[in-house]
Amino acid sequence: MNLIAWTIIACEIGFWIVILLGLLTRYVFNRKQLGLFFLALTPVIDLLLLTVTAIDLYNGAAATQIHALAAVYLGVSIAFGKSMIRWADERFRYYVKKQGEKPKRKTGWAYARHSMKGSFQHLVAFLIGGALLLLMIYLIGDSEKTTALSGVLKTWALILGIDFAISVSYFIWPRPEKKKHNVS
After folding, report:
1. CA 54 – CA 45 distance, rounded (Å)
2. Which of 112, 143, 144, 152 has its CB 3.0 to 4.6 Å from that of 170, i.e. a possible disulfide?
3. CB neighbour list of residue 140: distance below 8 Å, 6 or more residues apart
């Protein structure tokens, strides 16, 4: 694996480490400001990945699918970061601190709306990551050297379309509630 692939892996691990540190310091050690500091480090991790990717391409590396994955990662991290932190926060509070209500499984229209919200977040991720991919393609300026980048952009557009189709399907066929088994 190359430097960018390892950096993406390190950034993903780092993302979850700073979230865990933030939640631990916030709820276990009751240091809310320090917890907020750790949670605020997540954009720094994104900046690190962007910097490493830009330096690698600037130094003449051939643009690969791994470079494209860095752009995808950045888009997803920016678009979904806050909701991923909120998701982790809710579960940490309930399962570790034993506070608040148990996170509920969404069904019916609530799930359809939640799914569509996720699709719109995916669209934001696509716009951010796609802009980064287009910027890389433009700056490299050689279509032969950027086929991997444009290929990822096309594939991602297809996946985004499928995501929206699935979300729309939940409005047509809502997700049913789980049936409770009565033991008599």
Report:
1. 14
2. 112
3. 57, 63, 146, 149
Report pLDDT for 182: 58
65-91 helix and 3-23 helix, angle to the nearest 10 degrees: 10
Residues in the chain: 184
Residue 23: C-alpha distances to residues 43, 84, 99 (Å)? 17, 13, 13
Each residue's pLDDT tens digit, 162-178:
999 999 999 999 988 87
Structure tokens at 32: 């809310």
149/136 Cα distance (integer angstroms): 8
Q: At what angle do helices 65-91 and 42-58 cross, to 10 degrees?
A: 180
- AA identity, residue 61: A
What's the pLDDT at 46? 84
Q: What is the pTM of this model?
A: 0.82
Q: Which residue has the tokens 């949670």?
A: 39
Rounded Cα–Cα distance for residues 26 and 85 (Å): 13
